[in-house]
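Risk register update: the risk of archive-format incompatibility is retired. Evidence:
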Amino acid sequence: MAAVLACLGHRGRAPGEAFLSHRSAAALWGMLPAASGLVDVAIIGEAGRERRRGIRVHRPRTLETEMTTAVNGIPVTDPARTITDLRRAKPVRGGASPGQLRQAMRQAAFLGLSLGPATPDPTRSELEQMFLDLCASSRLPKPEVNVKIGPLTVDFLWRGARLVVETDGYRAHGGEVAFRDDKRRDLRLRALGYDVVHLTYDQVTNEAETVAITLLNLLAAD
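Archived output:
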């Protein structure tokens, strides 16, 4: 609380709003262990221009008060915005490594914290382009895109290896009905002799090397 109050505007200065953010917010929510060192504070407005010992100030342009709340009286970014900040910032600037980000998201789910619309969820076309970029940068053979296999349309296909990759954004694949539909699709594709690999947004963006090695091994096994 002291770090947040230190960044608020004073009489005669432009007002501002300050919130615990990034790694410090993740620690307050219980998503990650508390980190030693600087306290992360995000500011909306013009307050807190001078440097404060022990405080790392962030001025995110996209932060709105609707993305904040309070925990035990401490103003803080909400869980969804906290995950977004962890993803965007470098670890040395209060962000998280890919492993820490996965840990934070798993812990948030365990605690029942909502990771709503502030968490990026790209469109199907955006996620597909990210995967094609991954293929190009990893020198994977270019797959066919949005291919019909019988009555089904798959995201990516290496026809010779009979390998299918489906890129799963949560918006399109979250929930019980989507889960069941995906399992039915996988069973039908396997019955037709295809291997199916599902990749999440997090895997495509944060685990590109592991994804590339896995796919290269599957293609080489053909």
